[in-house]
Specification:
The structure is a single chain. By secondary structure, this protein is mainly alpha-helical. The protein has one domain. The protein is built from 16 helices and 4 strands. The protein binds zinc ion (ZN). The site of zinc ion (ZN) has 6 residues, from helix 11 and helix 13.
């Protein structure tokens, strides 16, 4: 489920998606400051930086080229197809169908959104299918097609229910506050965002199985608790979960999710089969870095600011577009259901522009979590530099990450520093050497 035209939902879910440690092949990043710190850091040993076998390197280059192309094709097509839907009167037809079907506003709103999501999904389907096909061919995914389709259907249902409630609220606000709806809706979006972040861990089991980490790996939990103690954190063992990712993918991952009482650490089971205990300790150290350094709260604040700007610009865009194209698009005013598509068009345009900004913030947090994680395992593993470097090797190799990704694409679309940069930094970073100070811990 791509939700290409529902960046509003994506905006609300932004803080959750930013807190990922490991990455999918499509998301990893580079940053200038990491390179600077790298240059300042002393070198350690003669370990080679992240490298792939010639065979895997060829695979990684092929995947990388396809991902870059698909990423931008998908974004541009998302915007272009929405313009076409408006210009060809298809959005007006959805509105007519919904209004004719019932006089009840709730029925109209949900039916309009259903038609909108169906068309949106069909338009994005070729790219979704190709990406899943590619993941299967390269062995990154082991999910059967029926299971994949089932996941898409569940995501569609969720988008319809949650999106439908948001659409009803949005149009109620637009009718009540014709000139200030962007501000009023922004006010509503704050508690909705907080609730969304809180609720995500309870929605995740719809897609994957979660079990207490303690149940399968009590020895690992005991080790992780050492990292927890060092950070003076409050993550009891019952907040640590094992996700059965191996039923669907071969890549590895771990992350912090939730908010307040729902906050938790999730480790994919694939990480445990591919990584050594020391490497898993580092991955967990990185995750607990997000926890200790308040990245979820920062992410929420960031998305609230983004929502403020996006809604204001969206309001202005809707006024302009309806005044300019309202007659030809058959959209009489902002209270018309079809105006939703105009607002989505503005969100698509802004989210395209905001992408490098958002990813720049994300890379900053990810690098900070890398530093924290490496410092946290000092004294717990024999050689933190080698452990970190090896962890990134495993991470990169499991997803065929490109050792030398396109620089522009890194800047634009990577939520994490590139795996090569992370490995090189980890290999070189040793703040316990004379003349250096750890950033987050006392020597
Ligand atoms: Zn992370």
């Amino acid at each position: 489920m791509r939700l290409r035209h529902l960046p509003l939902l994506l905006c609300l879910l932004l803080p959750i998606t930013r807190a990922h440690a490991a990455e999918t092949p499509a998301e990893h990043a580079a940053n200038a400051y990491a390179a600077q710190e790298l240059a300042a850091a002393p070198t350690h040993g003669n370990l080679p930086d992240y490298a792939l076998s010639p065979e895997d390197l060829a695979k990684s280059h092929h995947l990388s080229r396809i991902h870059v192309t698909l990423h931008f094709v998908d974004e541009v097509w998302g915007i272009l197809s929405l313009v076409l839907l408006l210009a060809l009167g298809i959005v007006a037809w959805m509105r007519d169908t919904a209004v004719k079907a019932s006089a009840n506003r709730w029925a109209q709103g949900f039916l309009f959104l259903l038609l909108y999501l169906i068309v949106d999904t069909l338009l994005g389907l070729p790219i979704s299918l190709y990406e899943q096909h590619l993941s299967r061919v390269y062995g990154l995914s082991v999910q059967s097609w029926p299971s994949w389709i089932g996941d898409e259907a569940k995501a569609f249902g969720l988008a319809w229910i949650i999106g439908g409630l948001l659409v009803m609220l949005l149009f109620w606000v637009i009718r009540k506050f014709p000139k200030r709806w962007w501000l009023v809706f922004w006010g509503f979006s704050i508690p909705i965002t907080l609730f969304g972040v809180f609720a995500v861990p309870y929605l995740s089991p719809i897609f994957n199985k979660f079990e207490p980490l303690q149940l399968h790996h009590p020895e690992l939990v005991a080790q992780l608790e050492q990292v927890v103690a060092k950070g003076h954190m409050d993550i009891p063992p019952d907040r640590m979960f094992l996700m059965k990712a191996s039923e669907k993918v071969t890549t590895i991952n771990a992350y912090v999710t939730g908010f307040g009482a729902s906050k938790r650490v999730v480790v994919w089971d694939t990480s445990l089969t591919k990584g050594t205990p020391d490497e898993i300790l580092f991955i967990f150290g990185h995750e607990s870095g997000h926890y200790v350094l308040g990245h979820i709260v920062i992410g929420i604040l960031f998305s609230i600011v983004v929502m403020f700007i996006t809604l204001f610009l969206g309001y202005r865009f809707v006024q302009w577009a309806i005044a300019r194209f309202g007659v030809s698009w058959r959209i009489p005013g902002q209270t018309d259901w079809a105006a939703f598509a105009v607002l989505m068009l503005s969100f698509s345009l802004f989210s395209l522009v905001l992408e490098p900004v958002n990813n720049g913030f994300s890379r900053h947090d990810e690098h900070a979590a890398d530093v924290y994680g490496q410092e946290a395992i000092h004294g717990l593993v024999a050689d933190p530099q080698t452990t970190v470097k090896n962890a990134f090797d495993v991470l990169g190799q499991s997803g065929y990450d490109d050792p030398n990704p396109n620089r522009f694409y890194e800047f634009w679309a990577f939520s994490h520093p590139s795996i090569g940069r992370r490995a090189a930094f980890g290999k070189a970073y040793n703040p316990w050497t004379p003349g250096m100070e750890p950033k987050y811990f006392k020597k």
